[in-house]
Amino acid sequence: MPRGADRSEYQSREYVDFRDVEFLQQHLNSQGKLLPRRVTGAPARIQRQLSKAVKRARHMALLPYITDSMR
Fold it and tell me: What domains lie within the chain, and their CATH numbers?
């Protein structure tokens, strides 16, 4: 998502669910790292929830800790 992206996507979200893998993958780079707020345009509250959701999804094996390109 480009900088200054439309935040209406985040306005309707009450919380970030760790089971929503497609949404989480939009906020990860090719190495599997979480993209910063300045890139995604996410508010601070959502960015904190994203961080926790990614960690939970990795723990539950919904997301990989490292990607295939890192192996």
Answer: 15-65 (4.10.640.10)
